[in-house]
Amino acid sequence: MMRTLFPLLAASLLTACSTSRPPGGIRGDREGEIAFGRELFAQHCNACHPGGEEGEGPSLLAELVLPGWFIKRTVRQGHGEMPAFTVEQIDDDGLEAIVAYVHDLRRRD
């Protein structure tokens, strides 16, 4: 009994602790991608860039629009006091979703 219960419990815990992805992935579903990006932003970025605004880190809503490649490079390599985030921490789909969310924040600003 315990031998079969442990794998189920472990799988439940891993699923509960992971960030949920929209069913079917995020490609082609803009609203799903933005929602996923919002979750990841809250988890990894919001402490220093609250709501995209200036906090411990600079505002992401400044007048200059940050291109997606620049955001991705900065997230992967870090900058100044900002730590680098590895693919294990934020995978490439997640990083694309964060970029979509940041760009959406600018549109709503």
Provide a descriptive summary of the structure in words.
- The model is unreliable at 4-18 (pLDDT under 50).
- This protein has 109 residues and is mostly helical.
- Helix 2 crosses helix 4 (92-108).
- The protein is built from four helices and no strands.
- It has one domain: Cytochrome c-like domain (Cytochrome Bc1 Complex, Chain D, domain 2).
- The N and C termini lie far apart (55 Å).
Topology:
Layout: H1 2-17, H2 30-44, H3 68-77, H4 92-108
Mean pLDDT: 81
CATH evolutionary superfamily: Cytochrome c-like domain
Helix-strand sequence: HHHH
Low-confidence stretches: 4-18
Query: What's the CATH first level?
Result: Mainly Alpha
Structural class: mainly alpha
Alpha-carbon distance between the termini? 55 Å
Report the helical percentage: 40-55%
Number of domains: 1
Total E-strand runs: 0
Summarize the structure.
The protein is an all-alpha fold and 109 residues long.
Primary descriptors:
Cytochrome Bc1 Complex, Chain D, domain 2, mainly alpha, globular, 109 residues
